[in-house]
């Protein structure tokens, strides 16, 4: 036995001896633990809306929203099997509420956004105030606030749920409660908060209108507001070569991300345009709102059609091509990464 081999054998003996004491040698895993750049376990993946919808409607025949509490199909990343995660930090699901149904009131530490995929006129109520949900509206249910959903229309209502479930799980800091009644008592007419906080204004300080939590007042970002804004921008501005025409949704309380752990934005790539390659450390979930084209992710082409949902994990090079004007909604954990001062991007 050479000296090197003898040493290796002694090291192996050492590892085996200390394993029952729950001690492991860093030098065997250091290169994996501290990498030069992100190498996500998550895969690039696209969910076809019509296919997912068909399964969701089948579930609708078999279990009520009330019984399920939330009737949702989780979009689980194929690289993160069993984790109920679409990226290592974020969750996505498609939620169905059928006509006449309610999803009971609860509150939890996790922050949620809802992006309406289909249906018109159901509601999410937040601390007793309804947001009437229309196609491609963004509705927030921030952590700690009571929320329930209901559908009094005659059409199914489907939206994408984006939550920070894996982030909160990482910190072992989750709490949840069911509301004792069925629906939280109505606290304000629908649209009240949007009127007060959704137009670059706010109630005068100290006024009785200060009903919403100061750090997170606004919870409805209607398509009817964001879509024309994107068009107006695209009509005269030159597009950002890496992003397209992009607008981030902001929290009016501080000008920051919509929620502490989740950032959200929309973008428009004009027909015939293509973005320059870009990487970012925030794995991002995209929803195709309009148009067609493709996402070239690390050289692999993913076709984009309306209502498709595509996940691009951290540090994958992304190029977007629009054959028809593409309008995308996106959310990511950039909000968390900014706070931790670890966010990075690379542009060609
Ligand atoms: O609507 O509160 O998709 O608590 C997962 C967990 C939705 C919700 C989900 C939830 C909700």
From TrEMBL:
UniProt keyword terms in alphabetical order:
Dioxygenase, Oxidoreductase
> Entry's InterPro entries?
Cupin_2 (IPR013096), GDO-like (IPR047183), Gentisate_dOase (IPR011960), RmlC-like_jellyroll (IPR014710), RmlC_Cupin_sf (IPR011051)
**What GO MF annotations does this protein's record show?**
gentisate 1,2-dioxygenase activity
Q: Which residues form the Cupin type-2 domain?
A: 94-161
Quote the Pfam families the UniProt record gives.
Answer: Cupin_2
For the protein in the UniProt heading, the enzyme class is oxidoreductase
Its Enzyme Commission number(s) read 1.13.11.4
Entry protein name? Gentisate 1,2-dioxygenase
Q: Which organism is it from?
A: Novosphingobium umbonatum
What is the name of the gene encoding this protein? gtdA
């Amino acid at each position: 036995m050479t000296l090197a081999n003898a040493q290796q054998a002694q090291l192996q003996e050492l590892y085996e001896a200390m394993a029952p004491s729950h001690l492991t040698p860093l030098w065997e895993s250091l290169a994996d633990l501290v990498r030069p750049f992100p190498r996500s376990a998550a895969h690039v993946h696209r969910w076809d809306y019509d296919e997912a919808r068909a399964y969701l409607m089948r579930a609708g025949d078999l279990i009520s929203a009330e019984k399920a509490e939330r009737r949702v199909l989780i979009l689980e990343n194929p690289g993160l099997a069993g984790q109920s995660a679409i990226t290592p930090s974020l969750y996505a699901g498609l939620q169905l509420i059928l006509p006449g149904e309610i999803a009971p009131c609860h509150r939890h530490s996790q922050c949620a956004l809802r992006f309406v995929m289909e249906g018109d006129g159901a509601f999410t109520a937040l601390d007793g105030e309804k947001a009437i949900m229309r196609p491609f509206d963004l509705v927030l249910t921030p952590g700690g606030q009571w929320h329930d959903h209901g559908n009094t229309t005659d059409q199914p209502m489907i939206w994408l749920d984006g939550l920070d479930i894996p982030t909160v799980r990482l910190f072992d800091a989750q709490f949840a409660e069911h509301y004792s009644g069925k629906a939280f008592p109505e606290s304000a007419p629908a649209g009240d908060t949007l009127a007060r906080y959704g137009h670059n204004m706010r109630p005068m300080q100290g006024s009785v209108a200060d009903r919403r939590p100061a750090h997170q007042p606004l919870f409805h970002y209607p398509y009817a507001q964001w879509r024309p804004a994107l068009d107006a921008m695209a009509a005269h501005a030159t597009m950002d070569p890496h992003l397209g025409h992009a607008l981030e949704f902001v929290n009016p309380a501080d000008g920051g991300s919509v929620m502490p752990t989740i950032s959200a934005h929309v973008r428009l790539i004009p027909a015939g345009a293509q973005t320059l390659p870009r990487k970012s450390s925030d794995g991002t979930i995209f929803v195709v709102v309009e148009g067609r084209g493709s996402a070239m992710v690390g050289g692999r082409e993913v076709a984009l059609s309306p209502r498709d949902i595509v996940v691009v994990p951290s540090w994958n090079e992304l190029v977007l091509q629009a054959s028809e004007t593409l309008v995308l909604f996106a959310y990511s954990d950039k909000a968390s990464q900014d706070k931790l001062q670890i966010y990075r991007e690379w542009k060609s």
